[in-house]
Specification:
CATH superfamily: Aromatic compound dioxygenase
Distance between the termini: 49 Å
CATH class: Mainly Beta
Helix content: 10-25%
């Protein structure tokens, strides 16, 4: 009898623990992405993301930029909470520069990266500096953005692109997929910090969403 009660108690404990972990769908959304797991590095680094983050190098590098936005549910109106946003970018020479002791995907994405997590209002903001294009000139200036929703695998949405970037040609503009909405932003100078806003619509133009 004691053995039976012990087994039942153990089953109860295991069931309770399972209920406290996030259930992730087996369905892969967003299409192929070899590095989207980088969005989960905040766990390895013991970071508790907040709605606002300041990217490494902001205080010492110009031009400084501030990007705000609201994550919206697929209806395009309702704010989405508990959504993780992961951004990373090049330095002012166009390289993904790691620190001396990189952890996780920093080895590839560099140290100029950060995470945000939306609250009930869906809002987020990050402070960084304007990245440079790749030295070979094959792409316009950009900031990568990945999304991690509760119960879904991480996936990427359109990069942040700069409307005044001469490398952002008409052909480039037409080729944009608008995953989560258009990533092209227009910067306005506010007391030395260039700011822009871009809202994200979950599921918009995301394959297999």
């Amino acid at each position: 009898m004691k053995n039976i009660l012990g087994i039942l108690f153990l089953v109860f404990i295991i069931s309770s623990c399972k209920g406290q972990t996030e259930k992730v769908s087996n369905r892969l959304i967003g299409g192929p992405c070899e590095d989207c797991d980088a969005a989960l590095d905040y766990k390895v680094l013991n970071i508790d993301p907040e709605p606002t983050v300041t990217i490494n190098g902001f205080n010492t590098t110009d031009p400084k930029i501030k990007i705000t936005g609201t994550v919206l549910k697929p209806d395009g109106k309702t704010p989405a909470d508990n959504v993780i946003l992961y951004v990373y970018q090049t330095n002012r020479k166009g390289f993904y520069e790691p620190s001396e002791n990189p952890v996780g995907w920093e080895k590839r994405h560099g140290k100029f990266r950060g995470w945000m997590k939306t609250g009930s209002d869906g809002k987020f903001e990050f402070y960084t500096f304007r990245p440079a294009p790749y030295p070979d000139g094959r792409e316009p200036e950009h900031i990568h953005l990945y999304i991690k929703e509760p119960g879904k695998n991480p996936y990427y949405v359109d990069n942040y692109l700069f409307d005044d970037d001469p490398m952002l040609t008409n052909e480039e503009r037409k080729s944009i997929d608008k995953r989560g909405g258009s990533g092209i932003i227009e910067l306005e100078n506010n007391n030395g910090i260039f700011s822009a806003n871009r809202d994200i619509i979950l599921g918009l133009n995301i394959p297999d969403y």
